[in-house]
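Subject: sequence -> structure tokens, single chain

Hey, anyone have a minute? Need the predicted structure for the following. Not urgent.
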Amino acid sequence: MEKIASFTVNHLKLLPGIYVSRRDPVGDQVVTTFDIRMTRPNFEPVMNTAEIHTIEHLGATFLRNHVDYRDKVLYFGPMGCRTGFYLLLAGNYESYDIISLMIDMFSFIRDYEGEVPGAQAKDCGNYLDMNLNMAKYLADKYIREVLRCIDDSRLNYPE
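Reply:
Had a minute. Here:
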């Protein structure tokens, strides 16, 4: 069986960043899948499910309400390895195209106060597994250590 593309990326060289994971034609359009990598795979601890879940709820809420992107967001959710998230957008994008969107989204998460959207039993299948304080910490860390100083080494997959 052929290896899927995401398993051909050298995760020992992969740094936290924003990567185009794939582009898929859908009819006459393109769907761009982004790898929003928040921790360095196999070097840093993975994120716990509570903060991932919180980032997912807040990130999806932000993106699906964004004036310029709400109609382009197809999916935002966690990677199974717990080192980051996938963002699927309708359109043909490069990694650098969404840097400001990611800064805005992670700033929204970092600064968020109040009840996490959808964190009630009637709205979510695991509403108790949330950690807003840790989500805010990780969002701030990602902004400071990755997004504010991002360069090509964190926008293009390593060879």
